[in-house]
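Query structure, 122 tokens:
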């Protein structure tokens, strides 16, 4: 069973930077693709970024167009922590941010954290 716990969300201002963290069960990164999703008020949850477990694999890291150049996904295999570094935040980035884990292929994201709230004030 994979457990995911997000942290780091808070209220920030437009243009600020913020880094989110997701603590995963030990070993999760060995065989799971990890991702960040977000859900804005009144909207559906949307993909933000993913990082595959196999370094150098095709599509190893991918970002939504809306965050390319501003967000960076990374992981620390030794500590099993997934990060999302966010720069130049905009009010449109407001939402609950979730980390998720997938075995890849057609299995989808079977494991989700509880989410952490990010609010960007204008």
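Result returned for the query:
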């Amino acid at each position: 069973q994979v457990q995911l716990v997000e942290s780091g969300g808070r209220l920030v201002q437009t243009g600020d930077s913020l880094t989110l963290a997701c603590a995963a069960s030990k070993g999760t990164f060995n065989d799971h693709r990890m991702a960040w999703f977000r859900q804005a008020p009144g909207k559906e949850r949307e993909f933000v970024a993913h990082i595959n477990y196999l370094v150098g694999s095709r599509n190893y890291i991918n970002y939504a167009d809306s965050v390319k150049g501003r967000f960076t996904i990374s992981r620390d295999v030794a500590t099993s922590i997934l990060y999302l570094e966010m720069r130049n935040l905009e009010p449109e980035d407001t939402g609950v941010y979730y980390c998720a884990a997938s075995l890849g292929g057609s299995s989808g994201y079977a494991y989700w954290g509880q989410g952490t709230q990010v609010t960007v004030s204008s």
